[in-house]
Amino acid sequence: MTTDVAKIGSIVEGQLQRMLKLGCSFADVRFYDEDRAQHLVLYDGNLEANVSGLERGVGVRVLKDGAFGFAATADLTAIPACFDQALANAQAAARLLGFPRDMETARPVQGVYRPPVQQDPFTVPLSEKLQLLKRVDDALQDKSVAHRSVSATFQRRRIHYWNSEGTRVDREVLNIFASMTVMAPDKEGRTQRRSFQLGSNGKGTRGFEWLSNPAAFSDHAERLKRELGEIVAAEPLPPGRRDVILLPGQGHLQVHETIGHPLELDRILGYELSFAGGSHVKPSDIGTLRYGSEKLNASVMVVDNSPGTYGYDDDGTPQHYYKLIDKGILVNVLSSRVDLAEANARAGRVVVKESGAAARAAGFYKTPIDRMTNVCIEPGTDGTLEDIIRATEDGVLLDMPVSWSIGSNREHFHFGCEIAWEIKEGRRTKVYKNPTYSGHTLEFYRSLDLVGDESTWELVQVANCGKGEPNQIMEVGHGVPVMRFRNVQTGESESARPRAQSESARLLA
Amino acid sequence: MLETRIRDLLCAARDSARRRQIMAEFNFHRERSSLIRLGNSAVALSTHEELTRLDIHVQQGRRTGTASLLADITGREQLEAVLNQALENCRAALEKEYDPIFGVVEETVDDTHGYDSALENLSPATKTELCAQVITTLKPRGRYDFSGSWSSGSVELYYITTANDNECYRRLTDSKLMLVLKEQDKKWELSVERTAKRAGEFTAQDIIAEFEELLPIYEKNPGFRTAVGRQRVLFGPGALAALAQLTVWSGLIGRFWEEGRAFTSGKQFGDRLFSEQITIADDPANPQVFGMPFDFSGKRRRRFVLVEKGTFTGLAYDTATAAKYQKQPTGHDLENWDLTLAPGTAPAGIAQARKLAGDALYIPHLHYIHLPDPTKGLFTGSSRFNALRITKGEFTAPLFSSRITDTLPTVLSNVVAVSARTVAQNESATYGRRLPEGLSVPEYMICDAVRISDVADSF
């Protein structure tokens, strides 16, 4: 513990006691001793972003009379004033109170978390990182590639947490996100792209040694170029209903948008309506709703190598494994301590027994909200990717999102992907470009009939999940196997030609 | 101008860089932000943040590097450490293929006309009181729940470089309120937004009246699932702001045009892009926008026309793109532009608009917006708040979630009517640092043959 941390800890302990004496039922503090980031982007060979950043400050949360107040400051000499501001905010919020906010009682925790790392990326010289990216950039260069980009982002956060119940947590978070993209115009002049993101199988260490392992990142450059060439030469996916097989590169976003977000308890309770939206799930659905087929098993996992693993959440709750969907039945949701009482009251029975350790804030100056962590689909028993392809008569294999539209309650979705492989009679026959698919969330998951085994399971990193007001960008992980869904609407048809402008004008009512 | 202590420290850091023959740009940002968040018809959260950020950008020949700090500015040594980090990043950087353009403050700017201390200090209690008036008036009328947020605060921006002693300073305030009314069983959602530069620019009665205008249609009619295909759409200001921004990013940015990835690539100034009713400019002098007087390369920002009466007239170049393609930068080294979509000649008012539209879909906002293909200006976006079916000039039913997949040139060429009245649309960023951004857009635009690519049976 540095002198600063000890000194700030001493101030904070005194302030937490002061808040209790002033009638607060709960208070907590996060001190970001260091929130460090480095962002590097090579675009067409030019280093267009070369930025390193450091953030430091405290965030204070106070619960009084059933209402929360939050305040943050980068001025470490102003911590008592920050508590006062948070208290004033809570008092103002209590003037228009709904269901009283309640943290429920939790046993104090003394915790330390460190991620598995061999080589801290912030000890690696910038020149070495750039050489690695340059090698990838060189590998992506080709006359068939019009534009290319390679990027890497490194994050290291050292966070200290105290609350009025006596919980003390010291944790470190370390993330590496990296991606490469190649682009080229097709014969209609539309830009096609093929991309790859650094991912894992959930195991191993997540330091610089991970990124510098060619099998994890740089080796994918040649495949991307080849597949881009196939996309550029391909025809668009014809519309129609067919089976859809999702690779983890696309499956993770399907899970993120239609399982992860709708199962966030604050969304379910209506606290995100004005921005992110609501959920088709009701508290009373927990334990009863058939979300998908018996093949669907979704869990919050604690895996070593994921940005969704952080030891303890921002309520001080230790991360732990739990099922969200068990053999297709919804059994739990993503929760923090804040909303448990309200969820159970609304359901009229206990539907959420304990916090899911999903309270997460994107920085010291953001308040914790219910976030995804490692929302994963458990591996199935239907074999390898090739086994699933062999079992498919008429379908498409899809990878990597391009665009998506989701209903505000997450009942309905529409995704566009980078690439589709046609599957006919158990074989990949050709590539299609501009593939899309759409459906209703519950119908879609109820049509899940094949789930790949562990060999198909990949942990996909998401660096930019947006939620909350003020908006917060959060890092999450999704472990997903290959999955097959039956009889899905794919492709789009142009059902009417655009009218000429003059004709339009005549139609003015 | 910026408070003396911080200004002196920043100028001292600049002078130190000069003495060390380092080409450096200093970009200071300080915000005081407060927000109340509403959920389930109550205040779910009340926040306040006081944050200071500094970015130092260093250039040596064809190498550049940047270091950022979000922490209290405490003294010279701290700033020297940030400068040294930027220098270290720069020295280790790969050389670019072009000569970067270094920031030079063209003239000193000291702009505080957009600052209102009453708005900066608007209390959570005042906000709560206004929201409570709206909620207590409307909530008893149905199974309604209110959610939303109200953010207000101030920003100080200060930019200097080692090129000269000129300084750019700006202090302004902004406020954005969004209230959403949701019917708990049918799940439809109505929203009302308000933007302000000064305290007291709107009242609870204004907001109640706007809700009351649309509520009867939602209360009396079931949701309508429209057909896939091309339809007439009456776009409202939120959707128009989104279309204007998409048009700029996919067609009127120098980088995309130069790379052949813009829908305007291959076209020249003077070529027709859209209907004659479309004029798009970046205009800091427009009174409805927040009006950023300088950019972060030190250029003075003035009205810059991108599309004039449907004709391609301008491309925006930031310094990096201008350097790479040997063009002149246009004052666009910033995220928060002052976009304006010019008014037309059609009668003001949504009541007039729906009569003009006849049979159409009213889509005032677009959500889940993507640009799958900038080379065609192909975009996707879905309806959500306040979307309605229009039949024979009347609003007749709330519209289920409908997705548009179309190209910007198609939509903006099939313009039938544009309102003569413009409104301010607040698009301020809250992702990272507070950045007030507003657009001036017509209150409506009617476009024909807009492609509805997917329809849901839910909101």
Pick out its properties.
heterodimer, A: alpha+beta, seven-stranded mixed sheet, five-stranded mixed β-barrel, disordered C terminus, B: alpha+beta, PmbA/TldD fold, 2 domains, nine-stranded mixed sheet, globular
Overall description:
Chain A is 22% helix and 36% strand. Chain A contains 11 helices and 23 strands. In chain A, strands 1, 2, 3, 4, 5, 6 and 7 form a 7-stranded mixed sheet that branches. A 5-stranded mixed β-barrel of chain A has the order 9-16-17-19-23. With 459 residues, chain B is α+β, with helices and mostly antiparallel strands. Helices cover 24% and strands 37% of the residues of chain B. Chain B contains 10 helices and 22 strands. In chain B, strand 2 and strand 3 (63-70) form a beta hairpin. Chain B is globular, with a radius of gyration of 24 Å. Chains A and B meet through strand 2, strand 3, helix 2, helix 3 and strand 16 of A and strand 1, strand 2, strand 3, helix 2 and helix 4 of B. Strand 3 of chain A pairs parallel with strand 2 (42-60) of chain B.
Quaternary organisation: heterodimer
Detail the poorly predicted runs of chain B: none
Largest interface summary: A-B, 99 and 113 residues
Radius of gyration of chain A: 24 Å
Residue-averaged pLDDT of chain B? 95
| Integer-rounded radius of gyration of chain B | 24 Å
The tally of strands of chain B reads 22
Mean pLDDT of chain A, nearest integer?
Answer: 93
Backbone shape of chain A = globular
Largest sheet of chain A: 7 strands, mixed
Tell me briefly what this model is.
The complex is a heterodimer of chains A (509) and B (459). Chain A has 509 residues and is of the alpha+beta class.
SSE layout:
The complex is a heterodimer of chains A (509) and B (459).
Chain A lengths: L2 H19 L4 E18 L2 E19 L2 E7 L5 H15 L16 E4 L12 H15 L6 E17 L4 E18 L5 E7 L10 H4 L8 H14 L1 E2 L3 E7 L1 H13 L4 H4 L29 E3 L21 E5 L2 E2 L9 H8 L11 E2 L8 E2 L4 E3 L7 H6 L3 E13 L5 E13 L2 E7 L2 E5 H6 L1 E4 L6 E10 L4 E9 L2 E8 L10 H6 L3
Parallel strand pairs in A: 4-6, 8-18, 9-16
Antiparallel strand pairs in A: 1-2, 1-5, 2-3, 5-6, 6-7, 9-23, 10-11, 10-15, 11-12, 13-14, 16-17, 17-18, 17-19, 19-23, 20-23, 21-22
Chain B lengths: L3 H16 L3 E17 L2 E19 L2 E8 L5 H17 L16 E6 L2 H4 L3 H15 L5 E18 L6 E16 L5 E8 L7 H17 L8 E7 L1 H15 L2 H5 L21 E3 L21 E5 L2 E2 L6 H7 L13 E3 L8 H8 L2 E4 L3 E7 L4 E5 L5 E4 L2 E5 L3 E6 H6 L1 E4 L3 E5 L11 E5 L2 E11 L4
Parallel strand pairs in B: 4-6, 8-13
Antiparallel strand pairs in B: 1-2, 1-5, 2-3, 5-6, 6-7, 8-22, 9-10, 9-12, 10-11, 13-16, 14-15, 15-18, 16-17, 18-22, 19-22, 20-21
Helix pairs in contact in B: 1-2, 4-5
